[in-house]
Design a protein that fits this description.
This protein is α+β, with helices and mostly antiparallel strands. It contains 11 helices and 16 strands. The protein has 2 domains: 270 residues, L-amino peptidase D-ALA esterase/amidase (4-Layer Sandwich); 120 residues, Ubiquitin-like (UB roll) (Roll), CATH 3.10.20.340. Strand 12 and strand 13 form a beta hairpin. This is Arginine biosynthesis bifunctional protein ArgJ.
Length: 401
């Protein structure tokens, strides 16, 4: 497996576009289309928020057959909290895209991101979708990326290639997200394309497993969005033998590539966390189960006290162990140890008296590893988060509602 430069259109048979339809005050790209020139197995996961946005409801229905040819996305308005009219408008977005692309409506998925509670300006949406269809190109990946961004400060792209059954298979992903990030799916949007040939049911399993170990292992602020959606399209244009079982070398190679793309994108979302100055990798090991390890790690990652301590470069280990203690995961202070940046800070529940200057240098780093050993088993889990800075408060205090 090799990481390469490229875009969402690097896999064979995919086109994309991103256009300026006037939905964003910034005047930047705000409507995107990702399109497969041939039939594509498709899988998707969505927010668990019960206040799910209209496009989520529409796409959940359209994905039931396990295949799609296009995804239409708008940024600038979430089309959430918009009632029956919002649902009608999401359906209309699908109809408009399907009409321009000469596709059945159930072959089109729709996604939105932006301000909640605002109806879509359908005249601008209609004109934008027509423009986006006209602009579809193998060179349209960059503009499509721009078209899905909101408070993001940089592009989030990951592209890989490898040999599967003697064929070169490529996979590319893009994502957006900086705030309201706490997936079970968060606002996170993620779209992946691949020219691998994969049976729909197998793609669905691989996708859910990859998401569970990537996007479901990140948090920025603990808030799960109304609009989260992550979808993958596999059109088989690479010509490899169809992967129709969730076992064997080809499946494992495909899954590893899928997980790599998702992990790259998930980490980029965290690194672009609103106001973030530090990227934190939190691993809880020697736990009785993966679930317990994840529960403890996520409690640390979500803790405002932990996150602000890292922003202030304060190695406040008490806050970390406090989070483990209230997480609900089984823990025994006498067996618990902690390292920050490779420096032992706590041993058997007690202060390890680390060298102050060494720890000070660690806390000044932009990327820091936090490692907790529970001493209760053999399972572990790693989650990724960022600190809370003054910038996070400023961005969210000034964000228009």
């Amino acid at each position: 497996m090799k990481k390469i430069t490229g875009s969402i259109t690097t896999p064979t048979g995919f086109l994309a576009s991103g256009v300026k339809a006037g939905l964003k005050k910034s005047g930047k790209e705000d409507i995107a289309i990702i399109y497969s020139e041939t039939a594509a197995a498709t899988a998707a996961v969505f927010t668990t928020n019960t206040m799910a946005a209209a496009p989520v409801l529409v796409s959940r229905n359209n994905i039931k057959k396990g295949n799609a040819r296009a995804i239409v996305i708008n940024s600038g308005s979430a089309n959430a909290g918009t009632g029956d009219l919002g649902l009608k408008n999401a359906e209309e977005m699908v109809k408009l895209a399907a009409g321009h692309l000469n596709l059945p409506t159930d072959q089109v998925l729709v996604a939105s991101t932006g301000v909640i509670g605002v109806q879509l300006p359908m005249d601008k949406i209609a004109a934008g979708i027509a423009q986006a269809k006209a602009g579809l190109s193998v060179n349209g990946g960059e503009n499509a990326m721009l078209g899905i961004m909101t408070t993001d400060t940089f592009r989030k792209v990951s592209v890989y290639e490898q040999q599967l059954g003697g064929k070169t298979v490529r996979m590319a992903g893009i994502a957006k997200g900086a705030g309201m990030i706490h997936p079970n799916m968060a606002t996170t949007l993620c779209f992946v394309t691949t020219d691998a040939a994969v049976a729909p049911a197998i793609l669905d399993k691989a996708w859910r497993d990859a998401i569970n170990l990537s996007f479901h292992m990140i948090t920025v602020d603990g808030d799960t969005s109304t609009n989260d959606m992550a979808a993958v399209m596999a059109n088989g244009a690479a010509g490899n033998k169809v992967i129709d079982q969730a076992s064997g070398q080809d499946y494992e190679l495909f899954y590893d590539m899928l997980k790599a793309v998702c992990t790259d994108l998930a980490k980029l979302v965290v690194k672009d966390g609103e106001g973030a100055t530090k990227f934190l990798e939190i691993t809880v090991s020697s736990a009785p189960s993966f679930a317990a390890a994840k529960t403890a790690a996520m409690a640390i990652a979500k803790s405002p006290l932990v996150k602000t301590a890292f922003f202030g470069q304060d190695p406040n280990w008490g806050r970390i162990l406090c989070a483990v203690g209230y997480s609900g995961a089984q823990a025994d202070p006498a067996k618990t140890s902690l390292m920050i940046g490779g420096v032992p800070v706590v041993k058997a529940g007690l202060d390890a008296h680390p060298d102050h200057q060494t720890l000070k240098k660690v806390m000044a780093e932009k990327e820091i590893k936090v490692e907790v050993e529970l001493g209760l088993g053999k399972e572990q889990a790693t989650v990724w988060t960022c600190d809370f800075s003054y910038g996070y408060i400023k961005i969210n205090a000034e964000y228009h509602t």
